[in-house]
Amino acid sequence: MSNSESKIRWRDIVCSKSGISRKNKLQQTGQAVDNKSTRNRLSQRCNCTFFICGIKSEDHGLWIVVKINLSYNHNLVPIQLRKFMPDNQEISDNIKDKTLGLHKAGINITRIRDIIQYD
């Protein structure tokens, strides 16, 4: 392989909340924070330690995991969005029975969804 070719040989996958924000970093080091260039909202970064490091094998082209830390220090789904997760959704017996009845009558799923939506 020549030096002019650029091939990915190493890959680090980290959580989007890893590290700390630039503003917090400046505050920790005691440097002045320029509020003009920063937006007025909280940072989502919480120094999460999740990562996966891998190298690509030249022999067979597969990725090999060499380092891994699968622990998070934050919730993966915000509390206000948890109600949309499949394990937190309940379908009443009334709706289940109605859906099965409509399906047995030959009504397609899109139409069943429209009917139930307006009930």
From TrEMBL:
What sequence ranges are listed for the domain FAR1? 3-78
Lineage, top-rank taxon, reads Eukaryota
Q: Which Pfam families match?
A: FAR1
What is the protein name stated in its UniProt record?
FAR1 domain-containing protein
Question: What organism does the UniProt record list as the source?
Answer: Rhizophagus irregularis
What does UniProt list as this organism's lineage?
Eukaryota, Fungi, Fungi incertae sedis, Mucoromycota, Glomeromycotina
